[in-house]
Amino acid sequence: MRRPYAFQRAVVVTPIQFEPLSGVAMSPPPAVAAVRPFELACPRLDAERVGNGATPGVWHFDAGLPGRHVLLTALIHGNELCGAWALKDALAAGLRPRRGKLTLAFCNLAAFDRFDPLNYAPARFVDEDMNRVWSADKLTAPDTQERRRARALLPWVEQADWLLDFHSMSNADEPLQLTGTQPRNIELALKLGNPAHLVADAGHAAGVRLRDYGRFGAEGENGTRSLLIECGFHGAPASRTVARDILARFLLEAGTLAADDIPPGWLADAAPRQRALRVTHAVAARSADFRFAQPWQGLERIARAGTVIGWSDGEPVATPYDDCVLIMPSLANLRPGVTVVRLAQPI
């Protein structure tokens, strides 16, 4: 009889590691492939993709006064449109820095050009995930579309003091602020007041994210801040609203804009209460044979340790501790090595 398996407990994020638990075996359910409808309109970026300097898709503004250099990035994944809308709206509104510098970057335009609302998953990237290439070994070997584009954007990333990277999710609806593990970023996320859920995570084993590149991933207080905002489901019109709200809050906190610079309707009501969660384990698929026990949407709290949440190659995957919270469960990009769910607990 097959027994369920659980993860070893770890202080830092731990990839899939199993040790046997006692219990009755459970059979995995059949695969269910449900594609949610994409209701968010695709923005026209004919003008925005030109940029206002030497780097296509990059808009840079300098107030001529001392202040932070803030970088806003969208379309790291070509099917995540909320950030592109927020940057397009910011340009249309004429937002300019009162102090310091402001850079807006439409990143993976080649992937965006593949976008099809009826089949949107393939537009995530062209050759590889652009949010796994931000390390020296990959950036110095620009042999993919995403690495070449990352190299073109690198000077802007290295100049920036504060970074806000816009994303959306393939399954979950509730926005998440992914802060990384640095206290300075967690503190900033709490100051912003939205969204309600903050997730302290150490990134991906498959590669370094933009949010964690170079100085942004360094420990201690070095003047940098970097956040990754997941604005909700890819195709939800509300994701655009979330993106504009977080953009406005971030620029206000950075001192880039004043309150009267924010267009009417951009700032949403602050969350009544923010909850911070720390990711302890990351479940990566061993193969394309991964199934969830239920159609998890994310942020479910699993009361008991040892509860089976899915199956990897037919082996049950169980929660490693009581009150385990599921973060961003998704099979949309299922292949070996891809993180399918993260496990977290309150900070």
TrEMBL record:
Its cofactor is Zn(2+). Keywords: Hydrolase, Metal-binding, Zinc. GO terms for cellular component: cytosol. InterPro entries: AspA/AstE_fam, AstE_AspA_cat. SUPFAM superfamilies: Zn-dependent exopeptidases (SSF53187). GO terms for molecular function: hydrolase activity, acting on ester bonds; metal ion binding. Residues 66-172 form the Succinylglutamate desuccinylase/Aspartoacylase catalytic domain. This is Succinylglutamate desuccinylase/Aspartoacylase catalytic domain-containing protein. It comes from Bordetella bronchiseptica (strain ATCC BAA-588 / NCTC 13252 / RB50).
